[in-house]
Amino acid sequence: MLEQAAGKPLEGKRIAVLMTDGVEQIEYTSPRSFLEENGATVVLVSPKQAGDEVQGFNQLQPADKFKVELNVLDANPTDFDGLLLPGGVANPDNLRMSKESIAFIRGFPVEEKLVAAICHGPWTLIDAGLATAKHLTSWPSLKRDLVNAGAEWTDDEVVIDARLVTSRNPGDLPAFNDALLKELLLAPGNDPGPTS
Amino acid sequence: MQQTASQALQGKRVAILMTDGVEQVEYTGPRSFLEEQGASVTLLSPKAPGEAIQGFDHMTPDQTFKVEQDVRGASHADFDALVLPGGVANPDQLRLSSESIAFIHDFGMANKPIAAICHGPWTLIDAELVTNRRMTSWPTLQVDLENAGAKWSDEQVVVDGKLVTSRKPDDIPAFNQAILSQLQ
After folding, report:
1. What is the CA radius of gyration of chain A?
2. What is the C-alpha to C-alpha distance for residues A37 and A14, in angstroms, rounded to an integer?
3. Do residues A184 and A112 lie in contact, with contact meaning Cβ atoms separated by under 8 Å?
4. Quick one: which of A101, A196, B64, B83 has the fewest CB in 10 Å?
């Protein structure tokens, strides 16, 4: 047990997952399991109330439900070391209507803190002003919107710019998770610059 | 004689382009209205003719609709107007169908009426038809449309030349009337 405790590299790290109904559930469950296995504390934050359920989807099929752990109005970015934005087309579309959610995302400056978005997740980065002049990727349908917002978009399984980590689809989750681990292990102020 | 009065769109052909995830009332509402006015309406899709399209009532899968024509090989020359319903997943998938985007683009280049509602206007960005156009949409698309050069406003229906746009299912009556005006 001692060995296990010593072997968890993300012990003490706190990660917020911001999502709502329509989330592509594997893009929530896979990074959450990975981060928790590595010792991090993960909190499901939503514009829905704490205790309410978020409806997950497998593509167009409604699937599992997940209990909200913290309302975004009660969440403070300074309490977290990083932010995870899963996809699912309806999830970020709903978040874009939530001023509090966009303000929360804006509270994670990507020069200092991990912001990780996958699939349709990067949509909210446009509204939060975090896409401009950033190199990133996404589900391909968002390409035009991200480029029009001033981002440089490339078709790679994972793109890292400052502490902004983006991926395209569930098939990229292993590379996405590895990038989260790597970015969370960097000390603040140790940004090595674009590595993709 | 009364029937004649309500057959204002006799001989007009309207294409509706959509795929899985369509907000079904944004398909059935305009289709019923246009058919009642005498128009002939065809459901086009990147899915194959005879295949079913999964409609949604907001977040819940609901009715299915049979595809009547493949968008591949379809020509704007066979239609007088194009309707683009919403439902967030529907235009999101159409954006990845190059044949669908080309079909929409050709309609715009031919200066024929295009009517898009809710999330429907997303594909107009990819079809390069929004720059300097006055339009509306579901509010989440506002920033994407503005970044693409559109002039967005929050109205139940916006008509700019041959482009008709509305925000949501509640706007369908005004949306239908605007399509009718375009076709008369």
Report:
1. 15
2. 13
3. no
4. B64
What mean pLDDT comes out for the span B106-113? 98
Distance CA B16, CA B53 (A): 12
Q: Which residues of chain A have pLDDT under 50?
A: 1-3, 189-191, 196
Exposed, middle or buried by CB within 10 Å (0-12, 13-18, 19+), for B13? middle
* Residue numbers of the domain that contains B16: 2-183
The full DSSP string for B67-84 is --EESTT--GGG-SEEEE
Q: Which two tokens stand for residue B149?
A: 């050069």
B131: closest CA of chain A, how far (Å): 12
Q: At what angle do helices A26-37 and A173-185 cross, to 10 degrees?
A: 40
Please report, for the domain that includes residue B125, its CATH number: 3.40.50.880
CA atoms within 13 A on the CB side of A130: 31
> Inter-chain contact B125–A93, Cβ cutoff 8 Å?
no
Q: In the block, which residue shows the tokens 């978009």?
A: A153
d(C-alpha B12, C-alpha A61), whole Å: 37
Q: Which of B20, B57, B92 to mutate to test the interface with A (most CBs of A within 10 A)?
A: B92
**Residue with token string 């052909």:** B13
ipTM greater than 0.90: yes
pLDDT tens by residue, B125-179: 999 999 999 999 999 999 999 999 999 999 999 999 999 999 999 999 999 999 9
Q: In whole angstroms, give the CA distance from residue A155 to residue B43.
A: 33
A182 interfacial to chain B (CB closer than 8 Å)? no
Handedness of CA A69, A71, A77, A83 (dihedral sign): positive
Q: What is the identity of the amino acid at B67?
A: V
Residue B1 has pLDDT above 50, yes or no: no
Which domains, and CATH codes, for chain A? 12-185 (3.40.50.880)
Per CB-CB distance under 8 Å, the chain B contacts of A89 are 21, 88-89, 92
Q: How many CA atoms lie within 13 A of B105 on its CB side?
A: 12
- Euclidean distance between CA atoms B119 and B126, whole angstroms: 13
